Amino acid sequence: EESSTVSLAVIPGDGIGPEVTAEAVKVLLAVTDGGPVQFELAEYPLGAEHWLATGETLPDSTLEALKGHDAILFGAVGAAPGDKSIPSGLIEREMLLKLRFSLDHYVNLRPSRLYPGVASPLATPGTVDFIVVREGTEGPYTGNGGVLREGTPHEVATEVSLNTAYGVERVVRDAFRRASERPRKKLTLVHKHNVLVYAGRLWKRTVERVAVEFPEVSHDYLHVDAATIFMVTDPSRFDVIVTDNLFGDIITDLAAAVTGGIGLAASGNINMDGTFPSMFEPVHGSAPDIAGQQKADPTAAILSAALLLRHLGLEKEAVRVERAVEDDVAARTGKPRTTAEVGNAIAAAVS
Ligand code: NAI
Ligand code: MG
């Protein structure tokens, strides 16, 4: 095989971000060691700490530099809730969302799997193995809103959900394609079209139209409130869920809880056209309550690295990481291990 180099940007971020990212990088290097593909790393300091130190959120020059990489591995950003030194939402909007929008990460992929040996808070979870394809560039997250008379009794605040035929269609088609490649071949649209009628109709019509291209995939529909019921009472009914940015944000936290917690939930912010690098990150945040103590579970970051490998076409390496995680998780006894101990064990297993 011909050898090649993957140019990887690493954004460790704040809190436990650097701790879990270090383990994900360790595993990436271990699984590719001696193989034809080598990772070349470039680290970017960004996040709340970086803003406090420099006043920068995401300078255009940094954004341009990031565009030159093949992929991005991201930890987490954000200060402790209630920390008054950073305006609420600043880092989210000017850094994280700016990255997702500028790099056109229209597929926010969040797999949910209950691994053997992991305790679910559900008494009888059954087999849980589904993916949520969350739209990543539209919905209520575009900053399409404003405020009048802020702080007065006559305050007016708007936050308009933006849904384009183009944006909905490309993510729906991606979800159908993913469903067609899975054994159960089932897609569920989650929305709220009885109340959010205009956006809801666009989503529903788009699913009906794209479904014709995928006759082997069955599809159904759930209102988002009903979807939260089934996620708890019967999560095994789901295979591929496609939904908008906000609903996807909320139901994937629930999905993470049902499948054993936020320490295991991985995600990818994917640009399927390849025009810009895709970015892979654990679903969790910077966890200021346990930061710097080597208490964080790096598994979500490591599974995000597996998604990164798969996105780059390194399927064998991705599967090796996922198998190693599966074995590690199954062997967990409840005895606490440090973040690095977990990372070392998984890195050793893929070497
Ligand atoms: P969080 O996900 O950071 O933490 C929630 C709870 O889960 C905490 O008790 C934390 O200790 C625990 N936890 C999270 N990850 C864990 C891990 N790997 N292992 C073990 N326990 C873990 O959410 P929170 O507390 O709401 O937010 C903290 C900061 O993170 C905020 O500034 C928030 O804005 C930011 N955030 C950033 C995200 C990102 O960078 N993509 C996503 C979510 C939140
Ligand atoms: Mg969230």
CATH architecture of the largest domain: 3-Layer(aba) Sandwich
Give the class from helix and strand content and strand pairing: alpha/beta
What's the CATH superfamily of the largest domain, by name?
Answer: Isopropylmalate Dehydrogenase
Q: What is the CATH topology of the largest domain?
A: Isopropylmalate Dehydrogenase
**Can you tell me the overall shape?**
globular
Radius of gyration: 20 Å
Question: What report would you give on this structure?
Answer:
The protein is globular and about 55 Å long. Helix 7 packs parallel to helix 8. It folds into two domains: 190 residues, Isopropylmalate Dehydrogenase; 140 residues, Isopropylmalate Dehydrogenase (3-Layer(aba) Sandwich), CATH 3.40.718. It starts with a strand and ends with a helix. By secondary structure, the chain is of the alpha/beta class. The strands form two sheets. A ten-stranded mixed sheet has the order 2-1-3-12-11-4-5-10-8-9, with helices on both faces. Strands 6-7 form a two-stranded antiparallel sheet. 1,4-dihydronicotinamide adenine dinucleotide binds next to loops.
Give a concise summary.
This protein is an alpha/beta fold.
Key features?
single chain; Isopropylmalate Dehydrogenase; 10-stranded mixed beta sheet; two-stranded antiparallel sheet; binds 1,4-dihydronicotinamide adenine dinucleotide; binds magnesium ion
